């Protein structure tokens, strides 16, 4: 079962700036592109930092008498390097979208620079990219669940698989009989992982209960001598 990766949903056309880019030019990019942050890269396109709207706000507030040194430095900053947040929080292009959602939620981030295995900028993924996954129509969701879960993994016939899945407003209702009880939670878990599924209603039954069976132990418990 193929899982969506960051490279599948990211925006590859991402504007970046250099360490020496003037702060005013950074602000123009943020305002002109209606984005909340921009990656800062070096000559090799390696991400070295990020300048966000939050980083620019101190430029509007003169530091008080007891302001921290960093606040004073940011108020007087002239280049991206002087105002950026570093090191940059990035995510790999082959990471799962679940990991991106976890990072954005826990670290209160709106977007993440996407990098390759060498740390070079490939694109950017935002909250809106992840939210867009829930806009998928019910029929396309049903087709993916039938194909990737019930046919490819559970190996049901086409007719059985088709009859097992119903989608309404992103909620997947699973019905029908599986061969073993242990397959039911697998079907539910895999269905829940399909991007765009809002919830899963489990009405699956099973022909035999294999959850109480213990693995067969080998009869030979020692070393075989001839």
Automatic annotation (TrEMBL):
Residues 137-208 form the BON domain. Residues 10-68, 84-140 form the CBS domain. This is CBS domain-containing protein. Transmembrane segments: none annotated. Keywords: CBS domain.
């Amino acid at each position: 079962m193929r899982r969506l990766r960051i490279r599948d949903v990211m925006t590859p056309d991402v504007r970046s700036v250099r360490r020496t880019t003037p702060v005013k030019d950074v602000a123009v990019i943020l305002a002109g592109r209606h984005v909340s942050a921009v990656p800062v890269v070096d000559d090799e396109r390696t991400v070295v930092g990020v300048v966000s709207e939050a980083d620019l706000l101190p430029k509007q507030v003169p530091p008080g008498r007891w302001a921290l040194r960093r606040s004073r430095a940011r108020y007087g900053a002239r280049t991206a390097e002087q105002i950026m947040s570093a090191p940059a929080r990035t995510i790999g292009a082959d990471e799962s979208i679940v990991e991106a959602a976890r990072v954005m939620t826990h670290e209160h981030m709106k977007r993440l620079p996407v990098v390759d295995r060498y740390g070079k900028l490939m694109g950017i993924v935002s909250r809106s990219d992840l939210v867009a996954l829930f806009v998928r129509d019910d029929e396309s969701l049903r087709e993916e669940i039938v194909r990737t879960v019930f046919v490819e993994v559970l190996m049901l016939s086409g007719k059985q698989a088709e009859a097992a899945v119903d989608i309404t407003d992103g909620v997947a209702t699973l019905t029908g009989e599986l061969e073993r009880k242990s397959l039911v939670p697998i079907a539910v878990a895999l269905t829940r992982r399909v991007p765009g599924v809002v919830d899963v209603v489990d009405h699956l039954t099973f022909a035999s209960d294999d959850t109480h069976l213990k693995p067969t132990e080998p009869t030979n418990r020692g070393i075989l001598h001839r």
